[in-house]
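Justification of resources, computational component.

The compute hours requested in this renewal are based largely on the per-chain cost of generating structure records like the one below. Each record pairs the submitted sequence with a full structure-token output. That output is archived, and it is also reused by downstream analysis tasks.
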Amino acid sequence: MRQVLVALLMLAPLVFVPSATAIEGRSTSDIICCPATDVELFMLGSADSGTLSPFAERLADDPESAVIANAVTSEEVVATWRLQDLYAGEVPESTWSIRLPLLVENAGGAQVNFSVEVAIGSNVYVGELPAPSTFVGTGQSTVSFDIPVEATTVNDGWDLEVVLLARSVIFSVPQSGSQLSVQWGSDDADASITGELAVVEMNLLDVETDGADAYIGVVMASPFGTDLLAFSNDLTLRLGGSVVSGDPVETQSADGIRVTWTYTDDDPGERTLSLEVTLRLQSGAATITSEPRDVTFVTEGGEGGGGSYYPAEEPLRTTGAGSSLTVVGAMDLSQDRGELVIERETSITLDGEMAFWMRWALDHLGSEDLALSPTIRSFRAGGVGDEERESRMIESVERQEFEQQMGKLHVSFLSNGLGLKPDELIGDSGDFDTVGISLDLHGEERVISHPLTITIRSRERVADGTMIDLVRDFIVVQPVPFWSDWSIDLTLRSSGLTALAGLDLGDAEGLTLNHRRLPMGEVAVLSGSDLDQGLTFELIAAPTSAPLYAPMLVLLATLGVLAGGLALGWRVSRNRRRALLMTEVVLLGIIVVAMFLFAYPSLFVLGAAGSSAFIWGVTALVSPRVARSAGQAAARDMKGVPLPTFACPACGTVNDVPSHERPLRIVCMGCHRGITIQG
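The structure output for this chain reads:
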């Protein structure tokens, strides 16, 4: 008895020790979604290792294909596609359907018999064409058939596998090179399988509050990973029947991705509201709706969390949808002590998820948390203390430390943190004489989703006359894109004695290059908006101080050639008609000046000026002479001699002689008689 009593006394403390959950205040979860729903899965990837995805955004421009070049008389595997790591749930009894684009070439058609095996875990279901064989004509066509699927229970970690088999293929009127291609994976060949399947699981977390803000977190888990948030439509949280506005914050969770909405209570106090999450997986598909839940929380007055959730874990840089990126820059080419110097200023503006991640990272400078990404942990604490760190505000000391340390870390930060190629965007940092970094928070110091701008200034010396890359495609193409779209506005300038010879962009869809030459230097603007991350381009030039390319010297030489040509033509045409010559002077002068302003190669401009001068000389030489009568010559010689008067012999009226021309006939003002003056 005594031994039993001792044992009970030893176990008693365990009864009263609180659980780990209570000690650490961890959130609990409640599965609120989702049962099986109709979903169309597109076939992607190669024939040997294909995948399935419900998102048409994953379709490529060019299709994948499996080619059958010979008649098939026995069963053979055409292609296999898999969807891994399904979630536990029920698959109801239903009929799945498959749709396959086919292409018959160099034959009148083909008799085909296909079958498909759909394996859900260890359960295999078979479907085939309705007839023993189906005729498909030459060219493009589509075949469809059904797969009956029985009700089954899916366990965690099971895979969905779709295997396409060709049982027989017989060509009709075959020719040399007859073949049948099964196509998939592109917009024009969107092969798919449709059925009822559970594709997402939602776990509702305990509501967290801070002042007037309530944070409602839902963990989204899906075999499609971040694509679920990137490409699905209408992810919405409703509280009390009203949609919670604002962009949610996404962080990585052990079971998926945590999506946290912020609900700001205008009338703080205890609330009990009905909660519902809706998700539309595909455009035109049915809405997936979670089970309704009543949540109770208490909010308080005051500013609280400032209207935005501040996660304890590092937020995702992207959920797949990507953020907006804007690059605005300037390059100035000049001479310094006989050497060519390029001064760059590149401003990188971030928005969306990437901006929130960077603000959160700035508020964690110097943190020793091993869970942080290497990009954040590469920054030292410096002057940042514990009071400034994780304060939900970006203090001036954090901004200053970032600007200072970025002088050495800008290459790794741009590449590893932002997914950019620094050498292609700002030049090779190994050639920089100086580099400076500044950070603009756009008037907002809180850790919220708000744009910010990183400006990098550098100065480097370049070789005279050597072709270099001024800027080229600088975005690292990633399976889960960081950037939804990006834009660029880059201005290049030279001095009056320097030039960007051979400036060329090549063929880059969406980008434009506007190049002008002014007396005080060249100006070129590279611009584009709503650009794709996969865009490739290259802007090249050969910076030079050669007199043949210097804008000011080219202009003086051009004007000198034109002035010489005009002077020569004017002298040659002194006794000739000049109407045609003056017309050519105006037209050709405008053309030559336009060629200079629109930055045609200097040799073209000087050549056009020389050709214009030559044309003016030829025109002046072949222009007709001006014809003059003898009377006109005499009148020209008498120019300046005073005109005489005389009295009429008949009436004595004094009349003026209006001209020096002789003989001259006039009418008397008195008697109106005609009088002829001979000398």
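The mean pLDDT is 87. The first helix runs from residue 2 to 16.
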